[in-house]
Design brief:
By secondary structure, this protein is α+β, with helices and mostly antiparallel strands. It is 55% helix and 16% strand. The protein has four domains: 118 residues; 96 residues, Beta-Lactamase; 75 residues; 148 residues, Heat Shock Protein 90, CATH 3.30.565.10. Strand 3 and strand 4 form a beta hairpin. The two termini are 63 Å apart.
């Protein structure tokens, strides 16, 4: 780089970064070297220096630098012309100079467009609120997350957003929460579960560089939370296995002894009119044994002994097994038509245990023996993305999103008397078959459990 170019970069940098309205003092250091330069030479030099200047700066700074640099270049040319004896340039030279300035303007526009495109197509929703609370910028992802076109969001304050008919009640509540906790209280970040069950990580950035504005970033981290939850689930089940292996026999053996002695004492208790006590003790001991059995099953279910079975036949058998129980509780079980050619390779006993557990939970949730309205359980199955799926849906009250995220954890139950081990067992059995089990539930809209299992021919 020549000595003059170094001086030019230094003077240009000092000016665009200073914020000063006048650039005369910066230009004065260049006049001894630039007076006899032609306008096209100065323009070309200026463009080269600008490329050096914006190479490692932020996008917003680059845009500001380009705007201010045009003022610098024009004033430098005027100053050079005032001190030069060179005759006025010809029309051809003026046209050439105009084209060079236009090229510089295009370079500026390209930089602007590049950074705008980066913001528009980021995988995070970006919105800028000005100091008065109005949205001055929103990218495409942000409009997708909130479910409304960008043009209906820009220029709106909180009052306008709450009146926007395209926004759901849940999204309006999200905006209110952001406004209160981030705009008013200046919270730096917040993770929110919205009405659709999405985990949204909302980050707010403030500072002098935003001149009183607030930049909001919204990222959908649902998939990350699902992966994280799966890792936690595996860790918990591994720990559960270690605990159960060490305490199972220690508990069952004394329970067996206690049960035997209570049975021996039962005639004596009956003579004292206390037979009811013996019955309750035996019942509670049996319940404790059942819990221990489920505890052991959840930690170490036996390896599946697989055989090919027809999905339609398996679903039909499950629905017939629970049909009577469902009717007694005011429910009906419906089966969608299933292609008889769809097969799966599974341990039939274990998969039946999974399906029966889910159907049993649905029946208990839908108990309406005295109601004219029936609870409905619908079982469907088919092929999707090379896997076999079995879906069990009910029209119950649904599950709260906070509970839904931990539904397959041991000892987490939506039932007051549940052990919280049944779905943990289901999760482990399906996982041992190389499959997945998911739940999709909306409050007051019902719950759907979806089991995916590998296709035997895949």
């Amino acid at each position: 780089m020549s000595d003059f170019k170094k001086r030019y970069v230094r003077a240009l940098t000092d000016y665009v970064q200073s914020g000063s309205e006048s650039c005369a003092s910066y230009i004065s250091t260049l006049l001894p070297y630039s007076t006899n330069m032609l306008p096209e030479q100065l323009t070309a030099l200026h463009e080269d220096c600008m490329r050096v200047l914006i190479a490692n700066v932020e996008s917003t700074d680059a845009l500001t630098y380009y705007h201010r640099s045009f003022v610098f270049l024009i004033e430098l040319m005027v100053s050079c012309r005032q001190q030069s004896d060179v005759p006025p340039p010809s029309d051809a030279l003026l046209n050439e100079l105009r084209e060079m300035l236009l090229s510089s303007q295009i370079s500026f526009q390209n930089v602007k467009n590049k950074y705008e495109n980066v913001l528009q197509y980021m995988d995070s929703g970006i919105a800028m609120f000005d100091r008065d609370g109005y949205i001055s910028f929103a990218n495409i992802k942000f409009s997708q997350i909130v479910g409304a076109p960008r043009k209906t969001l820009l220029g709106q304050d909180m009052r306008g957003l709450l009146k926007n008919r395209l926004l759901t009640i849940g999204i309006k509540r999200l905006f209110l929460r952001i406004y209160h906790e981030m705009y008013k209280l200046r919270a730096p970040f917040k993770e929110i579960i919205d009405e659709k069950g999405r985990h949204l990580l909302v980050t707010a950035m403030y500072g002098e560089e935003f001149d009183g504005d607030m930049l909001i970033s919204v990222k959908d981290v649902t998939e990350f939370r699902r992966i994280e939850q799966s890792a936690y689930q595996n860790d918990k089940l591994a720990m559960l296995g270690k605990i159960s292996a060490s305490i199972a026999h220690e508990i069952r053996n004394p329970l067996t002894s206690i049960r035997g002695f209570i049975q021996l004492l039962r005639p004596d208790l009956a003579a004292l009119g206390k037979e009811e006590y013996a019955r309750i003790i035996l019942q509670e001991i049996d319940r404790a044994n059942d819990i221990i059995y489920e505890f052991l099953s959840s930690s170490k279910p036996t390896a599946p002994i697989k055989e090919k079975v027809q999905v339609a036949s398996l679903v039909r058998e499950i629905s017939l097994l629970y049909e009577s129980e469902a009717l007694l509780n005011g429910c009906v079980i419906e089966r969608s038509p299933i292609d008889p050619g769809i097969m799966i390779a599974v341990d039939v006993k274990q998969i039946k245990q999974v399906l029966l557990n889910i159907v049993k939970n649905a029946v208990e949730e839908l108990k309406r023996p005295d109601s004219a309205e029936h609870g409905r359980i619908r079982i469907t199955a088919g092929l999707k993305d090379g896997q076999v799926f079995i879906a069990i849906a009910d029209n119950g009250r649904g599950i709260d999103p906070a509970v839904q995220a931990r539904l397959f954890d041991p000892f987490v139950s939506t039932k007051s008397e549940g052990t919280g081990l049944g779905l943990a067992v289901c999760y482990r059995i399906v996982k041992n078959h190389g499959g997945t089990i998911q739940v999709d539930s909306r409050v007051q809209q019902g719950t759907t459990f979806i089991i995916h299992l590998p296709h035997p021919d895949a």
